[in-house]
Amino acid sequence: MKTFACAAAVLSFGLALSARAEEPAGPKEGALNTYLNREPTDTAGQLALMQQGQFALQSDTTVALFFLQYGSRVRLERTYFPATTSDHEMVPCYVFTSAAVDKSVRRPGLVVVHGGFHEKLDWRFFRLIVEAVEHGYAVIFPEYRGSSGYGETIYTNTYGVTDVADVLAAADYLAKKDFVDPARLGIVGHSRGGMATLLAIEKAPKRFQAAVDLAGLADFLAYMAYKPEARRQEVAKEKHFGGRMPGENLPAYMEISPILHTDSIETPLLVLATTGDKIVPFALHSERLIDALKARGKVFDSHIYDNAPGGHVWIFGDSPETTDAFRRTFEWLGKYLHP
To answer: Does residue 1 surpass a pLDDT of 50?
Structure first.
C-alpha cells in the first residue's frame, strides 16, 4: 500500500508539473475579445448596453465630483495598470497624491480596495482617500475585475481570483512609482475589499508592511450559506466555481475563504468591525478571524464597535465610530509605514 501511495503521489506531482508547463503564457494569437452589440435590436441587448453606459457615466460623474471637492488639495490620475494574469489585461485605477507632491521624495504607498458586487469608486471613499493623502500616503484605488464602469471585460466577476490578482498587481504598479517607497506598502479594504485584502496578504505574505480589514468577508462558505439564492447562483456561474455550488465543488470555495489560510499571514493586521452588521455578520466573519489570529500568534490588533450607526457601512458615515475607525486605521498604518 505504501508503494502504491508513493507512486500515486509521484504521478500526481508529475501531472501537476506537466499541466503547469503546458499552461499558455497568454492568449493565443488571433484570440478575440467579445463586446456588446452597440446597435442591438433585442430588448436584452438594449438593456445591457444601457446598463454599461450608465455605469460609465457614474464613473465619470464621480471623477468630476472629486475634482470639484478636493482638486485643489489632491491630485487624481486616472489610468490603467498591467494585470499579472495570463490574459495580459489592463486594469483601470486611480492614483491619488498631494497636489503639492514632491516627486523627489519617496513616500509610503497605500492600496485602497472597494467592496461590493460590481461596485466601483464612489463618493463614499473620498474621505478615506483624502485623509490617507493628507497623512502622507500615495494611494492607488484599483478597479479590479468585477468592477463596473469600465466595460464588459472588467465587469466580468471572479470572487477571490482575478480581484486579488489585480489588487496585488496594483501594489506592484504603485511600488514602481518614483515617489513611492516600495518597502513601505499598506493595504486597506472594506467588505469584499476586506476579503481581497486578507487573501492578498495570505498569497503574498511579504508584499505589505501593514494591513487593515474593515468588516471583511472572512469565510466565503458562510457567505454562500446566507445570501439570496439569486446571488448564490450568479456567483456559482463564475469560471472558478464551474457553475457548481459548494456542495458540488467545495475545494474552489475553500481556496478563496481567508479564514482557512491565516497561517500564511505575516503582515501586521488591524481588524475593525461592528456588531449588528446585517451584510457581513460579525459572529460569522470578523469574530472568527480574530480568534484564528489569536490562536496562531499573529501580529494583529482589533476593535469591535457596538452596533455602530449604519452597521456594515459605518465607515462611510459621519459618526464618532467613523472618526475612531479612521484614527485607529492611520495610527496602525503609521506605526509600520512611517509616512
So the answer is: no
